[in-house]
Amino acid sequence: MQSTPAFKRSLTLFDATALAIGAIVGAGIFVISGVASGLAGPAVSLSIIIAGIVSSFTAFSYTRLASKFPEEGGIYVYARKTISPFSGFITGWLWTFENIVAGATVSIGLASYVVILFPKTPLIPVAISAVLVLTLVNMTGIKQSSIFNAILVLLKLSALFLFIIIGFFHLDFSLYKPFFPTGVRGVLNGAALIFFAFIGFGRPTTATEEIKDPETTVPRSIILSLALSTIVYILVGVISVGLIPYQELSASGSPLADAAEYGIKTHWLGLFVSFAAIIATISVILTTLIGVSRVSFAMARDKDLPTFLCRIHKKYYTPYLAVFITGIVTAILPIFSGLKQAASVTNFGSLFVYGMVNLSAIMLSKNESRPRVKEFLYIGIPLLGLFSCVALLLFLNLQAWLIGFIWIIVGIIYYKKK
User: Fold this and answer.
1) CB-based burial, 181-220: b 16+ in 10 Å, e otherwise
2) Cβ neighbour number for residue 39 with a 10 Å cutoff
């Protein structure tokens, strides 16, 4: 083993885009979309559009920063270099926490769909086992993990397109009335929650030193993954509430499978969607482990976390200790977390971190000279991203705020004492 970082650049644009889609398309659309439907009703598609727009602002900031700082660690590096080392630490600290919670949330979603296929299967042991197996896969190398992830991404996108196409011919338009049963606030509450489904488009930035030609490949992968995911999400949102009453959708742990069985009345499609959900959540957990371990590696390299986390495996070229510890913690969390609560906590961390992404892009642009025409693009869009992230934060529940601030305080105490 060696302590000197030495990654291999082995990921292409396809790999990087699949890494982002693998992180985005998962429990958010297969599980959390049902909860969001309960908040927004048939207008959940508007919630998805709002969350997608907010994400696009931040994605623009990500692309700017990724082309400027092609280093492992993503937003941790960006905040550290554009704002301050302390800002970088807090951002990385919160990012790793919310992604570990996200991984646990997704593992619960995975287990929920497994139970549909195998009703007597215990939920929590399945969630824990899935995380541990994927931890081992992650430790064998980024290229092997990316190939496995790409296969999973193609399978889950195929299943979603099949759900959209078949569902379109079975829509019950009476289910869209009333369209705004909970008003505008319900739509915004739904957007704040469904934002969980967009988390992950910045995942390639965490593994920048393992991507070929990162200055151009990483920004392109972010744009491609977010655009494709948003289109798929909007279509799925429209179809799902047209197949089953949103009240029943909101109470389901497997909303798309239930929508398929209720509205299309074909058991095989429900089972197939359940299988696709398992595939989807597996890829999200895999990419989450990749992301958290790489940010932890970057923080350890700068001595913001214990330095043993930046050790690279001599054979597999992975930060094996960071991967292992991330996997263990993620595997334990499903014992203590509920789906909606965990999603809200994850969204708090994500919106806070995305706010920091936009602030980092603003700080970067302040030190650059450019024509006035570009001023709006380079400062105006990140400002919109920052304000929209803050706005959605206000629609999260008090528990998410409380847990998020407690973790920030713990981080501040650690930083002062390290």
Assistant:
1) ebeeebbbbbbbbbbbbbbbbbbbbbbbbbbeebeebbbb
2) 24
Percent helix, percent strand, percent coil in the chain, to nearest 5: 80, 0, 20
pLDDT tens-digit series, residues 114-142? 887 788 888 888 889 999 999 998 888 88
Give the range of the structural domain holding residue 259, as residue numbers without chain letter: 13-417
DSSP lists the bridge partners of residue 11 as 211
State the CB neighbour count (10 A cutoff) for residue 115: 17
Burial class (CB in 10 A: 0-12, 13-18, 19+), 173: exposed
Cis preceding linkage at 178, omega within 30? yes
Alpha-carbon gap, residue 180 to 39, rounded angstroms:
10
Given the structure tokens 């390299």, which residue do they identify? 301
The CATH number of the domain holding residue 377 is 1.20.1740.10
Contact 193, 48 (CB under 8 A): no
141: DSSP letter = -
Structure tokens at 137: 């896969």
- Determine, yes or no, domain membership for 6: no
pTM: 0.84
Write the pLDDT tens digit of every residue in 167-223.
999 888 999 988 998 888 889 888 887 877 788 888 999 989 889 999 999 999 999
How many domains is the chain built from?
A: 1
Q: Which of 325, 286, 354, 344 is nearest to 105 (CA)?
A: 344
Among 284, 290, 282, smallest CA distance to 326 is for 290
**Considering the domain boundaries, does residue 7 fall inside one?**
no
Amino acid in position 31: V
CA–CA dist 197, 32 (Å, integer): 7
- Those residues whose C-beta lies under 8 Å from the C-beta of residue 118, and which sit 6 or more positions away, are none
Residue 8 · residue 149 · CB < 8 Å:
no
Q: Is 372 exposed, middle or buried (0-12, 13-18, 19+ CB in 10 A)?
A: exposed
**Terminal Cα distance for the chain, rounded:** 25
Cβ neighbors of 75 (< 8 A, separation 6 or more) are 65, 91, 92, 95, 202, 205, 295, 353, 356, 357, 360
**Coil vs helix vs strand at 2:** strand
Which tokens is 170 given?
């079975």
Instruction: Tell me, yes or no, whether 5 lies in a domain.
Output: no
C-alpha span between 151 and 131 (Å, rounded): 18
Total length of the chain = 418
